Amino acid sequence: MRFQDVMSWTSMISSYGMSGKGYDAVALFSKRQNSGLYSDSIAFVSFLSACSHSGLLEERQYNFKLMTERYKIIPRIEHFACFVDLLGRARKVEEAYSVIRQMPIGPHERVWVPLLGVCRLYSKLDIGLLAADHLFRLAQEQSGYYVLISNIYAKAGRWDDVTTIRSIMKRKRLKEMPVVSNVEINNQVYTFLSVINHIHSRKRSTRSYMR
């Protein structure tokens, strides 16, 4: 590009991240820093998201510290959500939960959703149930979240709670929407878009598409 500004650099970093090219995103981010361009809050969200999608835990931790100490950027919920997601993908579920508990800002659904997903994936039911209870209080109108909560309750055998969730959805006339699911294959976490057709206690059918 003839003219390179903050937006163009950020767009490229984000594109690398969504394509699973985490190391390319890291290299481009380092080049951006050396170019003298200021890295703003949005740029760090794109970079940290790229690290999360590629499982680059060390790079993410280093640059999170860089963001707060060198650039004096106060972390927003988007930054913490990326951090929680990355720690969860690395099976550091307890550490991810600790990050949420120590956040200087109030609880938000965007950090509980990725934590709940990995708890279900790795059968961390103790933390998963805590995440589900928090998410239930925070997201009263999101049908996709209700499905996630219902799934973890079902896995824990809390069938009365599953019935309660379904009754609330019916009463509020919430339609079941596509939700994101994670599955681990050969130590690699893949993300699926699942369309929930029916959930009833112990019986469930889905159509899944890998992203």
UniProtKB/TrEMBL annotation:
InterPro entries listed in its UniProt record: E_motif, PPR_At4g14850-like_plant, PPR_rpt, TPR-like_helical_dom_sf
PPR repeats: 5-39
Pfam families linked: E_motif, PPR
GO terms for biological process, alphabetical: RNA modification
Lineage: Eukaryota, Viridiplantae, Streptophyta, Embryophyta, Tracheophyta
Keywords for this protein: Repeat
Molecular function GO terms recorded: RNA binding
Organism expressing this protein natively: Acer negundo
Name the UniProt record assigns to this protein: Pentatricopeptide repeat-containing protein
Entry keyword Chaperone: no
